[in-house]
Amino acid sequence: PASAPPRSPAGMAAEDEAELNLLECRVCFERYGPGGQRRPRNLPCGHVLCQGCVRALGGPERRRLECPFCRRACGSAETSDCLPLLQLLELLGPGGGSVSSALGRSGGGAAGPAPAGLGLRLALGGWGSLVNPTGVAACRRSGRLAVAHDGKKRIHVFSPSGFCLQRFGERGDAGNDIKYPLDVTVTSDGHVVVTDGGDRSVKAFNFEGRGVLVLREGFCLPWGLDATPEGEVILSDSEAGALYRLTADFKKGILNKCQMIWSQLTSPRGVAVSQTSGAVVVIEHLKAQGLNNSSTRVKIFSAEMDLIGQMDSFGLNLLFPSKIYTTAVAFDKEGRVIVTDVCSQAVICLGKPEEFPIFNPLISHGLSYPVGLTYTANNSLVVLDSGDHSIKIYSST
User: Fold this and answer.
1) Which of 56, 77, 283, 380 is the most exposed place for a label (fewest CB within 10 A)?
2) Which parts of the chain are NHL repeats (predicted)?
């Protein structure tokens, strides 16, 4: 293929400026870091500051501060880690480096169009409506979408047409509050189940927002989850390196069983269950020494939890044209594995478990930092884009 045209100096300057805006605190202009004073923190209004500036603005008692950009007041306890930026810093590695090199971009021309037959039908959310969203799930009976994000009310429920039906899950310490949601799923009987990284729990709600069950079964850091066709929940524990199967009567608020079904995984996060075969796919986040060496690995299991296949970023890079760093995974109705890739800002089909991996880009433009995937009952593809705080729904044209 023809090489991309060279960037103009003005284009490179604009890209560099955008990168500075992304990686530096806009108060002290220091580069964000994974810990200490430079750790990026969300304010309730959605703006991001480093931990040092949050403490400085809070004064000696560190009780209240005012956002320097929109002047909204909040308490220091209302701030939270900015997960998308922390994930990007993890991808950049301890040596820093540029966003473009970490994501494997050449900086060339615009990405190609999406394949024929798949078009953007609806976009929801946006800055202010959603704040750094982390998970999305679809109810297969009603078509409603549940989104987890870092706003004042952590769960938003949208109708199939995009109308916001419900908001619930206040930030706080009460039993039904949500401190920091990492992922969300919807069970076959219409319950919204959320992993809460803030207090390391799993919480279930009905669609009206009433809490029905809180599970703290000794989880280290529950992260990704997906519902099976039978109404069970498959859950990843990132710090424990394990997968669990949760069986519960959510209507009665009773946990029947919490069973570990796989262990010795490396930081498992995103997980998905095939609605046809019951196969399970999980994304592991691997760390290696050196700059930009963080990578991911996709593992596929049968419904009986036999390992079918696996492929890491390095192996995929040997087969395909670019480094692939996956952040979310789903199965389509034919049982094919679909992943997001933040390196190419794309959604890619890796094929069915028995043919894994193939390489078929489904969406190759219009995304900035895709972190969530799900399919609706009518096979529309829903992409959660944390880069512009939106939900993008694609369907056959």
Assistant:
1) 77
2) 125-161, 165-208, 365-397
The model carries a pTM of 0.75
Q: How far does Cα 159 stand from its chain's mean position?
A: 21
| Together in a domain, 130 and 30 | no
- Distance separating alpha carbons of residues 376 and 382, to the nearest angstrom: 7
Rounded to the nearest integer, the mean pLDDT of the chain is 83
Between the CA atoms of 53, 59, 63 and 64, what dihedral angle is there, to the nearest 10 degrees?
-70
For 271-304, how does the pLDDT look when each residue is reduced to its tens digit (9 = 90+)?
A: 999 999 999 999 999 876 544 567 899 999 999 9
Q: How many other C-beta atoms are found inside a 10 Å radius of the C-beta of residue 71?
A: 8
Task: Tell me whether residue 13 is in a domain.
Answer: no
CB under 8 A, 24+ apart: contacts of 141-146: 141/188, 141/190, 141/377, 142/190, 143/376, 143/377, 143/378, 144/186, 144/207, 145/374, 145/376, 145/382, 145/391, 146/184, 146/185, 146/186, 146/192
Q: What's the CA gap between 43 and 221, in Å, rounded?
A: 23
Residue 254: which residues within 8 A CB-CB, separation 6 or more?
213, 248
For residues 80 and 68, what is the distance between their CA atoms, to the nearest angstrom? 17
Instruction: Tell me the residue range of the domain where 366 lies.
Output: 119-396
40: CATH = 3.30.40.10
Environment class of residue 385 by beta-carbon count within 10 Å: exposed (0-12), middle (13-18) or buried (19+)? buried
Q: Which pLDDT score is estimated for 107? A: 37
Answer whether 54's CB lies under 8 Å from 40's CB.
Answer: no
Q: How far apart are CA 322 and CA 330, in angstroms?
A: 21
Inter-residue contact 116 to 363 (CB < 8 Å): no
H/E stretch holding 223 reads strand 222-227
Residue 64 placed within a domain: yes
CA distance linking residue 234 with residue 247, whole number of Å: 9
